[in-house]
Amino acid sequence: MSAPRMDDWRDGRPGGAGERGDSAPAAVVYFHGFRSSPASFKSRRLARALDDLELGDRFHSPSLPPSPSLAARLAIAVCQVALNGADPARELVVVGSSLGGLYATVAAERLGCRAVLINPAVNAQRDLSGLVGTHTYFHDESQSFEFLPGYVDELRALAPAGITRPERYFLIAATGDEVLDWREADAFYAGARKTIVQGSDHGLSDFEDHLPAILDFCGIAA
Predict the structure, then answer these.
(1) Order of strands across the sheet with 114-118?
(2) What tens digit of pLDDT does each residue of 2-14 get?
């Protein structure tokens, strides 16, 4: 398999860290979930929030391939390019929803950055093992992809046994999640900053209500 290309994600936004006097990170990177894309409402709403604060050039939302191993490689590569040599512990926040939560956790553990997890998949190899086959994308049903049996093994290989430094994580989990059990995420991210949302759903349709807390965790004054 070929390595991910940088032009697969740049989407016309200038990237990279620069000299700043503010506390906002150099890069905020959003990772979408299974069958989703950068066109998801959470990705677009977070992008708009940063645009409104004149920080739009720091937002990146790559289109992740179906292969988990390639997706993780692309996720890390996007973060590294966006950082442009800056310290990830200070200058990078990753945000991941559902399966994107796994990629955000992998990035946080490998790079030492902060991570926001939105209804994250903590046992993706189990949850997706029954979904081998052909799927369409939520935001463009004219496009399809294959989720291959080997991808379950890739998920198993990627899955971290646990997290280090829980203070760099912010979990938002909805008790009304109809896809994943919020209690698994609550246990996996023990010690992290958490918002347990009563009700809501897997897509976190009330995402707007949580934007101020997400921006605060990023060190961004709204």
Answers:
(1) 59-60, 27-31, 92-97, 114-118, 169-174, 193-197
(2) 444 433 443 333 3
Which own/partner pairs from 213-216 qualify as long-range (CB within 8 Å, at least 24 positions apart)? 213/170, 213/172, 214/46, 214/95, 214/116, 214/170, 214/172, 215/49
Count of CB atoms situated within 10 Å of the CB of 23: 10
Is the pTM above the cut of 0.85? yes
Q: Is residue 17 one of the residues assigned to a domain? A: no
Identify the CA nearest to 101 among candidates 14, 176, 189, 15.
Answer: 189
Residue 50 inside a domain? The answer is yes
Structure tokens at 14: 């200038």
CATH assignment at residue 44: 3.40.50.1820
**Cα separation, 21 vs 7, whole angstroms:** 29
Quote the domain boundaries for residue 214.
23-218
Three-state DSSP at 31 gives strand
Counted domains in the chain: 1
Is 48 contained in some domain?
Answer: yes
Give a yes or no: residue 7 inside a domain.
no
